[in-house]
Structures are given as C-alpha cells and as structure tokens.
Design a protein that fits this description.
By secondary structure, the chain is α/β, with parallel strands linked by helices. Helix content is 38%, strand content 13%. It is built from eleven helices and twelve strands. The strands form two sheets. The chain has a seven-stranded mixed sheet, with helices on both faces. The longest helix has 30 residues. It is globular and about 65 Å long.
Length: 410
C-alpha cells in the first residue's frame, strides 16, 4: 500500500461515483422543496424562534416545529422536543407509551441497536421486562431481506401489540433497509395484524424521497443530532406518526393527562428550524462522503457496505478491516481530521449501554452528533468501522486522504 498515489485514487473514485453523486443531488433538491413547502404552509416567522419558561403552555415554537415535522414526514402528528435526550430516549418513549404489562412486541429486523438492550430486557432497572412486556425478534435473511415465511408463521400463531423495524444496520454487517422495502413489508403484515408498525428511522432521514410514514408505517422515531438537525440542532429527538399513537406517547414523555401540552425550552428554537431547513443538503454532503469512502477503500481491497456503485439507504458506511489495529488507526485518523478535539487519541472503553468495549471518534461541534463526521465500532471480530456524517463533502475528502495515510502505517 506504500506506493499508492492517494490523490489519483480519490480522483478516480470521484469519477466512477459521479452517477451516484447526481442521484444524491436529485434527492436533496426534492427534499429541499418538501421542507421549504412545510415551512411556508405553517407560516414560520421570527416569533417561532422564541423560547418559553415554566410549563411552556402555548409554546408556538415547539408546537409549530412539530407541525412542520409532521408535514415533511407524512404524519398526522408529531412530538419534536429538545427534552428528548437521544434517539434511544425517543424510541424508549414510544415503547413505554404504547406497550402494557402482558403485551409482546416483535422486531422484524433482528435485534435492535445495542443501547436498547437494557430498555427491553434489563433486570431491576425499570425495563420493559420488569413491567411484564415480552419481546421477540426475527432475524433478516442472509441477503438482508425480511424473512416473510417466519414473519407469517409468527403473526398467524400469536397476537403482537407492536411490530418494530430498525432501518439502519446497527453494529451488523448489512445494508440499511430502503423505504420501498419497508413499505412492502408493512403491506405484507397488514394481512395478518393491525398492530402499529414502529420504525427506528435514525440515520435514514432525507436519504430518499420518501420516509417510512409515507409508505404505511405508523410511527417513525429519530434524533435531532443526526440527519434532521442539519448539524445545527444542539439536542433533541422527534416522533412522527398517527395522531392517536402520538397522543399515547406524549403521556409517557411527560405525564398522563398532560402530554405534549407542556414542555418549555428557554433557549429558543431557531437552531432546530434552521437545522431542519439545512438537513436535506447536509445529508447529501454526508452521503457523498460515504460514497467516496466506499469507493476508495474498496479499491484498496477492503470490504465496504454499501458496495461500490450501490445506492445508500442511510448515511452509514461500514468498512471491514483485517485487524483490530487497522480499525483503531482508522478511528484515530477520523478524530485527527476533526475540527474539535483533533488532538485527542481515541481508545476503546466500556461505554454505557454496550456489551463490548467501543471506540468512538467524534470531534464534533455537538457532542456525539453523528451527522458530523464520526466513526465508531465495538472491539470485536469482524473488525468493522461504522463511519457516518460529514457536514461538508470537502471535509470528508480531506479525511479520506488522512485515513489512507494512517492505515498505511499498520
């Protein structure tokens, strides 16, 4: 690898990926129009940026932001709040809001992301299991598709209160689930059940022209420090879907009988509106960066997902390395290229909510914001780095060069 001309490699990768870049630009333009129309429909004005205090009754900024999200994502109602601490918090709020003791819910896409493990099955921590809620899952097929045969068997045999789908890959070697595939499985399960279908939509927003709620899903959930925050939102999460279900979730998020009528935020909402407006463009920048990383590292002999010349269904790029040392050096290169804490050297550590040691590179303006260029991985074989984000393509391009240089040293 020592005799590689990195500049030439990057130029070749860009030339080979031009058709993907063009597709990404087309999606970004479509979604920008969708966002702009929602802002105009809801008559967004300077007054919506003002904060509130105390109970937050009649908080126009909060309530209108929720209306804008509902319009963009094709839902009847929404909860968009800085008080939602993370994507995991948003998903947990949905699970606790809709499930009751004795219920069972079924994941159609395998085990959910690691941070939900304790929420679902932790002992003595107020988990769903502690409250008598059961959980089952069906793995995706080896080709990354839904196992329709097994799903049919389960739905015929048992009544589930909720069906759950994780759009992104988590720490698994698979592609994200595209919206079309989600729509088809929702149509399929409707033959057997009317249980709400809930989608963990993290990392997938604005990647395609449609969201899962536009193809039949009942609720989608995500984080504002990922795609829909546009790299500007400082915190928060969203829940979009059917009005009756959103109402139930709101009672869990605050208190029964109160719901989403309260919840103040004194610092104001401008960053949330502005981040949302920029989100289609920023997501496109991250996607182009993902494509470039995939093309370059594939040409160096590393396996990547999505494969070269394959469209993305989320902003994550999986790169499989040969050794733990290569993986760690890759993450350190990402950290070195960061605008914040570039001097830090990532080390694997026992991160709360994860079963293995995890290494994370995230020199971000917003702590942990994975719409910004970042990478992480559990330290276990196979040694796969999960790369995501990039506020600008130019930044990602610089990072590609540095990552190749770091890997050369191993």
């Amino acid at each position: 690898m020592s005799d590689i001309n990195i500049e030439k490699l990057i130029t070749q990768a860009e030339n080979h990926s031009k058709f993907l870049f063009d597709d990404i630009d087309s999606v970004a333009l479509f979604n920008q129009q969708k966002v702009l129309s929602a802002f105009q429909k809801n008559r967004i004005a300077l007054r919506h940026f003002a904060g509130t205090s105390g109970y937050g009754y009649d908080d126009a900024g909060r309530d209108t932001l929720s209306l804008v999200f509902a319009d963009i994502f094709g839902g009847e109602s929404a909860i968009v709040s800085p008080l939602i601490a993370s994507g995991t918090h948003a998903i947990a709020s949905v699970l606790y809001g809709l499930l009751r003791p004795g219920d069972c819910f079924l994941s159609l896409s395998g085990m959910p992301y690691d941070t939900l493990e304790t929420v679902i099955s932790g002992d003595g921590v107020g988990s769903l299991k502690d409250f008598g809620v059961d959980f089952e899952n069906i793995d995706l097929t080896d080709s990354g598709d839904f196992d329709r045969s097994e799903i049919e068997k389960r739905l015929v045999r048992k009544k589930y209160k909720m069906l759950f789908i994780q759009r992104s890959r988590g720490y698994n070697w698979r592609n994200a689930l595209c919206v079309e595939k989600i729509g088809k499985i929702v149509e399929f399960v409707r033959k057997y059940t009317d249980a709400p279908v809930v989608i963990d939509n993290c990392y997938g927003e604005f990647v395609e022209k449609k969201e899962p709620t536009e193809v039949g899903a009942d609720i989608i959930v995500g984080s504002l420090i990922k795609n829909p925050g546009g790299g500007i939102a400082p915190t928060g999460g969203y829940i979009v879907g059917k009005r009756s279900l959103i109402e139930q979730v709101g009672y869990r998020l605050t208190a029964p009988g109160v719901g989403i009528e309260i919840g103040s935020y004194p610092y104001g909402y401008r960053e949330f509106y502005q981040g949302l407006f920029l989100a289609p463009h920023v997501t496109a920048q991250a996607l182009k960066g993902s494509v470039l990383f995939g093309a370059v590292f594939s040409s160096l002999g590393f396996d990547t997902l999505p494969a070269p010349n394959e469209s993305c269904s989320d902003i994550i790029r999986s790169i499989r390395f040969n050794t733990k040392e290569e993986l760690i050096e890759f993450c350190r290169a990402i950290q070195y290229c960061s605008p914040v804490d570039s001097f830090a050297v990532p080390e694997p550590w026992d991160m709360p909510g994860y079963g293995d040691q995890v290494i994370m590179a995230a020199g971000t303006f917003v702590q942990g914001a994975s719409i910004e260029l970042s990478a992480d991985s559990p330290i276990r074989a196979p040694y796969i780095a999960y790369l995501q984000g990039g506020l600008t393509y130019e930044h990602v391009k610089l990072a590609v060069k540095k990552c190749v240089e770091y890997i050369r040293k191993v």
